[in-house]
Amino acid sequence: MQINDAYHVPLRLKLIRPILKRLFRGIFHLLGRVKIIGKENIPYGKPYVVAMNHVSIFDPPFVAAFWPEDLEIIGAEDVFSKPGQGQLLKVYGVIPVHRGDYDRGLLTKIIRIIKSGFPLLIAPEGRRSHVTAMRRAKPGIAYIIEQTSVPVLPVGLIGTTEDYWQRARRGERPLLEMRIGKPIHLPKITARGKERHEARQKNADLVMSYLAGLVPEEYRGMYAESAISPT
């Protein structure tokens, strides 16, 4: 896929994102405890893809708020219609994606963003799991890396369960933890046809295996046997 024009973050987003990030950092610190591990693994100033496990609605704002650089984010289109959540996504500039649909325009924009030097946050599972156990990744992340050749940073999130708000309201001060792994480079794909699709799925599964190595066993789900522990 050829991408000719560079992507530029709109000025309004450059101005509003630091305010939103500061606001959400304050909210998360007020509600509970926060622990971030592995910031030294971030390739600052370079394009990369952040791959996170996705348990609940708390995941994207948690990562975006505490990430040292501004992240471009893609999110499910149906969430944009929900009161409160939808407005926040629009204000931050989250890019809507139609789950299950092939959207060439969206893929072109994502690739343009990365090739223009910006980091991107994605959930390889494609949607919230609503439970701690990870589900199988979609091959989309492998396609994006195939087109951009950037590294993937696996990010394991712990504590962002759907009862987080209830536990916080009870004064339990629940712990949210973000574990940032080292950048990984996926094997290049040269196969064609069905074999290419299988290779993409294999690369997507590889990302999840690294991610599984960052989280406790109860979070690993179908990647429990293939988890790759950080070295």
General description of the model:
Helix content is 38%, strand content 14%. It contains 8 helices and 7 strands. The chain has a 7-stranded mixed sheet, sandwiched between helices.
| Secondary structure category | alpha/beta
How many angstroms does the end-to-end distance come to? 35 Å
The value of Rg in angstroms is 17 Å
* Helix content estimate: 25-40%
State the order of secondary-structure elements, H for helix, E for strand: HEEHEHEHEHEHEHH
What is the molecular shape? globular
Outline the biggest β-sheet.
Answer: 7 strands, mixed
Brief description of this entry?
With 231 residues, the protein is of the alpha/beta class. The chain is built from 8 helices and 7 strands. α1 crosses α2 and α5 (140-148) crosses α7 (193-212).
Search tags:
alpha/beta, globular, 7 strands
Draw up the topology in text.
Layout: H1 11-31, E1 33-37, E2 49-52, H2 59-66, E3 72-76, H3 85-92, E4 95-97, H4 104-115, E5 120-122, H5 140-148, E6 152-158, H6 164-169, E7 175-180, H7 193-212, H8 217-220
Parallel strand pairs: 1-7, 2-5, 2-6, 3-4, 3-5
Antiparallel strand pairs: 6-7
